[in-house]
Amino acid sequence: MVEFDGDGHWDRRVFVDDLRRQNGLVLAGWTVLRFSSADVLGRPAWVVETIRRALAAVRAAEDAR
To answer: Which of 3, 4, 7, 12 could form a disulfide linkage to 34, CB 3.0–4.6 angstroms apart?
Structure first.
């Protein structure tokens, strides 16, 4: 799962809710990647490469089973 954290995370309630949701996803077996607007807008190639690496790691883990 990929999450985009925009300016709403300056609000403590939004930040806390997102952390709780992420913890639930991780406990359910999901891999969660979070990116800031600065990364998405300023480093898009890095974001894409990070997602590709995560997908490759998941595929490798599945193949190892």
So the answer is: 3
